[in-house]
User: Fold this.
Amino acid sequence: MEQVSSTGRPVQITVTDGYDLKGFKGDTPVTFIRAEFNQVVLGDSAKVTVSPEGTAKYNFTSSFEYNPEGGITLDDLAHKPVFLTMTEVLPKEKKQKDEKTLILGQAVVDLLPLLEGESSFERTVPLHPVPGSPLEPLRSGVKQCSLAVKVFVAEPLLTTAQILGGNLLKVTLEAAYSVPESFIPVGPMQNYMVGLQVPSVGEKDYPILFKNGTLKLGGEREPVPRPKKWPIANILAPGANNIPDTFIIGGPYEEEEGELNHPEVRELCSFLVIN
Assistant:
């Protein structure tokens, strides 16, 4: 998309409330929210006590600067979400000097509406539990924990003319079939990354990487529908890498003839093993 020439503009993210929250210790845990974007910590909220009903008022605002001339660009906003990590502060025990904390879960906020002309929007985003967290539902029908979030910029980042004249490329890699036998993992399970080059007129090809692919054995296929995932690593809560409200629904596929050894496949993508 065409970059906007302007000085930096703040993008504000406000976490107002939390719902159906639980902690490791007691019915009224003390919690705080950490906001991160583009692998940078934007700030921590004040420590807030969750009510016996499982609600908490954070009213926590953090921000980063959108500046296409150096720093956060439109590409960053298009494919990188804001991460909101909830942490519980455990009660101090006798003779304990430092506070102990435990991460409860993570939520993600998609910033794509800012590239569609919105200057503000509100979302209630699910708070995905980390493994072993008390936020994990113990039985079906239990409400999922969530955060109420507002995103605000003083004026739209793109004009109507720029939106109509721009291109927003969305690429989804659903699955790869008939991969070479040498890909079969031996020992600990391995994850895979797939990369492809996107041609760009008059410019260098732009590489796109899809991370966190997991190899299935014995012809096992992914279920459908299933959520699409952010191409981002180092996510603490497994569910937090799901892109909100976007799903792979499946469809008719032609069977791959043999292994991935034909020239037209080799030009399209490459596989990298990630231990």
In short: The domain at 9-161 is CATH 2.60.40.150 (Immunoglobulin-like). The first strand starts at residue 9 and ends at 19.
